[in-house]
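Question (not urgent): is this output format expected?
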Amino acid sequence: MRSIDPKKLSIAELQQILVGSIAPRPIALVSTIDAKGIANLAPYSFFNVFSSNPPLLIFSSNRRGNDNTTKDTLCNVSLNSEVVINVVTVDIVRQATLASINYPSDVSEFEKAGFTTLESDIVKPFRVKESPVQFECKVRMVYHLGSGPGAGNLILCDIKKIHLAESIFNEKNQIEPDKIRLIGRLGRAFYTQTGGDSLFRIVQPVGQIGIGFDNLPDQIKYSHILSGNDLAALASVEEIKTLSDPDERVIRIVKDNHLKKAEKIKQIHQLAKEALSNGNIAKAWDILLSGNYI
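Got this back:
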């Protein structure tokens, strides 16, 4: 067995040991709002419930390890002491990872990640419509653990109102794990879920600024075939590259005069979906761009 003095490790080395061994961790998709009214959204896996009486949630917005800066969430909490904590499920996890990108402060992650805003009843920050559980909270206090890279800032949140989707309950009026299908964070690019296949990978490269949902072509964004997770994968690329080699399967579909345009688009999007299911985002884009010949 390895015995390690944490003081002898770099912040990055210690971080990987902590997140790899203390897992799975629930994910808080935290909504805040800044002084200009711009909605901010960010996922945090240093998160849990710590009290039922009073109902209290805590998450930590850590200082960045590479440059010691703090996130917009912490700044916004300091301004108005209000948050909405939304749970992350298998249906929206890819979108949640897109919201983790370090977009400029004047950019709303709701728009970039393709989430829908819902007015809250008590606090100013918006709820995430796609999340089946939303906690409206007042911030009790922020406890700063340090001033160096990687230092945590514990944000203690008093739950003031809870919103729950009917679809997550079983016949005994209990939240059913296989219905809510919550996501847990592990180390590196690994995640787990409470239903179905328990382990899968999502790679969101650090420092890569995705184009976001708002920059997806309308024909793709409003697809009846591609899911929110599919669109989030497509929206994670830094740019839409020029097609160099059209996909032959798509060309055959395009040239098929027996197919109506809607059917051609459906088949092309299905091919792209298959590529995305195999983790091949670049191939999915090639397929979709080949469809521009319709």
